[in-house]
Amino acid sequence: MSQAQPILDPLSRAALFLVATIDDGGEAVVRDLLAELPGLRRSVGFRVPGADLACLTSIGSAAWDRLFAGPKPAELHEFPGYDGPRHRAPATPGDLLLHIKAESQDACFELAMAIGDRLRGAATIVDETVGFRYFEQRDLLGFVDGTENPEGPLATSTALIGAEDPGFAGGSYVIVQKYLHDLATWNALPVPEQERVIGRTKLGDYELSDADKPANSHVAVNTLYDSDGTQRQILRANMPFGSVREGEFGTYYIAYAATPSVTERMLERMFLGSDEADYDRILDFSTAVTGTLFFTPPAGFFDALPGPAETPAEPAAPEASSLAHGDGSLGIGTMKRSAL
């Protein structure tokens, strides 16, 4: 398997997420940036010892078609979005995802500035979110986030493509969403009721028993099994974000998986419901405002990018003879003018 980008690394203290769309004619500049990114990361990271700066780079479906000729990851497609009976998950624009992470925010910011400089005039940054690690890896709802992430070999098989798509082994699919929390309503709930919404205890982070865990709790809705009883999982790298001035508090949901179908099944259950629950009750307090799907290529992909996609040829100009009138002229003097 090709070496993966640092998807499996532990959660960092700081993160900065950039989502960009490629402007018309910006493909060549974006390709140059993709090739330069490993060097940019090294240049910034060397100046901040101990920051463990990383930049996970992912590409959307439409952007892949614009940037590269040749094969495409087998399951790469646009995020479908979900309109449920009470809540919806919108699909929002995004060609590139830069998941910048480090142990200090200054390293993230410096690399983001370097990326922004190179994208100027070629791509538009449509979302910038500054993430941070909160107490005991909790989200702003006060619960530990990511407890059930797989570990060891299971994390590898969960997050990284293997022999099923050998041309892209070591890559991963990633879905990102921004969720905004209604903290005033949430904090008005008694803690035991909050625990029933999540499906875990708030202080100790223990999963509730089947008898005490509602079918519409977040844990219950996001626990998936195949027909043979195999549990299907994803690798989350969620980070809190917020603004006190704007009164905006949320979670940047970012889920890596060897196939996007697992994450999509979870979202279908959350928003569209299932036989067990109409929807995930956490959505009564957390609203999805973005949603995009990308492919995260293996690390070596950027050392030798595929050839550029072919630019559609301009229509050939008609030959003069085909424009000539019967009298041999081009008919310029006979052009009709619209009435004033």
Structure characterization notes:
The protein is of the alpha+beta class and 340 residues long. The chain contains 9 helices and 14 strands. It has helices spanning 27-46, 61-67, 105-119, 152-159, 183-187, 191-198, 218-221, 260-272, 320-323, and strands at 14-22, 54-59, 82-83, 88-89, 96-102, 123-132, 172-181, 224-225, 231-232, 235-236, 239-243, 248-257, 286-288, 292-296. Strands 7, 10, 11, 12, 13 and 14 form a 6-stranded antiparallel beta sheet that branches. It has a 4-stranded antiparallel beta sheet with strand order 2-5-1-6. α1 (27-46) runs antiparallel to α3 (105-119). The longest helix is centred in the N-terminal third of the chain and has 20 residues, at 27-46. Residues 319-340 have low confidence and may be disordered.
List the SSEs and their pairings.
Elements: E1 14-22, H1 27-46, E2 54-59, H2 61-67, E3 82-83, E4 88-89, E5 96-102, H3 105-119, E6 123-132, H4 152-159, E7 172-181, H5 183-187, H6 191-198, H7 218-221, E8 224-225, E9 231-232, E10 235-236, E11 239-243, E12 248-257, H8 260-272, E13 286-288, E14 292-296, H9 320-323
Antiparallel strand pairs: 1-5, 1-6, 2-5, 3-4, 7-12, 7-13, 7-14, 8-9, 10-12, 11-12
Helix pairs in contact: 1-3
